[in-house]
């Protein structure tokens, strides 16, 4: 509890229940372009700069991966390359246009929802104890 | 449609009264408007817009890299150090639907975050 007499309130329109027994907070995501859409699971990662997806997901959307904007991504063990493309990103009932990365390496299988393109566009509430993730589009809060 | 068919329609339309020509004109305008709103055309427009925006971003990465930008199509409407500043700038410019995003510098390295320890691609070499 905060200081005496002070509390903080946020409101959300979406609730995602995830398995708190798993090692990560993984939520269902849909990526789409005008003609194509593809669904996958993605890990919510507040420490990641970007939203990054496996290459084959971008290819299923009809993207020429290397035609995107090249971006180097650093990890604790080295770097890898992604190519940024604008897509429609849907999580629960929320949808955004977002500039996301698709891994250059075909062996890269991990999908991540990071700050740019996702977290910066939403209000997020997390109760890991219960395995519940609350979401809302920023600016859509009810007062 | 062939040029011959269009010419034939024009010749037939020439025989109409002024009122009938106006009715035909309204009909054709409405059909053209509906055609432009058809899903296929909308998709083509969106795809073209994405490609144009990506091209703009590549050209202007050096100039605006490291900042948040708001683009209305390929028109820059706001720039700022945070998503919020760029978004509010777009609203102030009368472009609330502008696409707001962070444009990284050409040599910038993004952070992978908390899952980095589990990454095996690519090899450190």
Write up what this structure looks like.
The complex is a heterodimer of chains A (143) and B (125). In chain A, strand 2 and strand 3 form a beta hairpin. With 143 residues, chain A is mainly β. Chain A has a domain of 97 residues: Cathepsin D, subunit A, domain 1, CATH 2.40.70. Helices cover 4% and strands 45% of the residues of chain A. Chain A has one helix and ten strands. Chain A is globular, with a radius of gyration of 16 Å. In chain A, strands 2, 3, 4, 5, 6, 7 and 8 form a seven-stranded mixed β-sheet that branches. Chain A has a three-stranded antiparallel β-sheet with strand order 1-10-9, with no helix packed on it. Chain B is built from four helices and four strands, in the order H-H-H-E-E-H-E-E. Chain B has a three-stranded antiparallel β-sheet, sandwiched between helices. Chain B has two domains: 35 residues; 55 residues, no CATH class. The interface between A and B is large, with 44 and 32 residues. Strand 5 of chain A pairs parallel with strand 4 of chain B, so a sheet runs across the interface.
Keywords:
heterodimer; A: mainly beta; Cathepsin D, subunit A, domain 1; 7-stranded mixed β-sheet; 3-stranded antiparallel β-sheet; 4% helix; B: 125 residues; alpha+beta; 2 domains
Number of strands of chain A: 10
Question: Ends of chain A: how far apart?
Answer: 21 Å
Largest interface: A-B, 44 and 32 residues
| Number of strand segments of chain B | 4
CATH top level of the domain at 26-122 in chain A is Mainly Beta
For this structure, the CATH topology of the domain at 26-122 in chain A is Cathepsin D, subunit A, domain 1
Sheet with the most strands, sense and barrel status of chain A: 7 strands, mixed
Helical/strand content category of chain B: alpha+beta
Which oligomeric state applies?
Answer: heterodimer
Order of helices and strands of chain A: EEEEHEEEEEE
Identify low-pLDDT runs of chain B: 117-125
Side-by-side strand order of the widest sheet of chain B:
2-1-3
Residue fraction in strands of chain A = 35-45%
- Computed over alpha carbons, the radius of gyration of chain B is 25 Å
Number of helical runs of chain A? Answer: 1
Biggest sheet record of chain B: 3 strands, antiparallel
């Amino acid at each position: 509890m905060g200081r005496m007499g002070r509390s903080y309130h946020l409101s959300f329109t979406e609730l995602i229940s995830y398995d708190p027994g798993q090692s990560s907070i993984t939520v269902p995501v849909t990526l789409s372009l005008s003609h194509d859409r593809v669904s996958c699971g993605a890990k919510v990662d507040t420490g990641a700069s970007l939203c990054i997806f496996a290459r084959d997901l971008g290819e299923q959307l009809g993207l020429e991966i290397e035609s995107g904007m090249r971006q180097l991504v650093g990890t604790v063990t080295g770097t890898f390359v992604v190519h940024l493309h604008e897509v429609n990103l849907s999580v629960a009932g929320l949808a955004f246009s977002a500039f996301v990365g698709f891994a250059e390496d075909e062996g890269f299988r991990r999908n991540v929802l990071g700050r740019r393109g996702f977290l910066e566009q939403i209000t997020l509430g997390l109760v890991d104890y219960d395995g519940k993730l609350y979401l809302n589009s920023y600016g859509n809060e009810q007062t | 449609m062939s040029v011959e068919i269009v010419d034939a329609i024009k010749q037939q339309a020439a025989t109409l009264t002024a009122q009938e020509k106006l009715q035909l004109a309204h009909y054709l305008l409405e059909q053209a408007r509906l055609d432009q709103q058809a899903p296929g055309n909308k998709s083509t427009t969106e795809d073209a817009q994405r490609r144009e925006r990506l091209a703009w971003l590549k050209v202007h990465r050096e100039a605006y890299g490291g900042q948040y930008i708001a683009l209305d199509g390929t028109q820059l409407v706001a720039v700022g150090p945070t998503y919020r500043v760029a978004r509010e700038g777009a609203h102030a410019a009368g472009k609330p639907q502008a696409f707001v995003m962070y444009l990284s510098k050409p040599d910038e390295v993004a952070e992978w975050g908390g899952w980095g320890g589990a990454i095996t691609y690519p090899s450190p070499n």
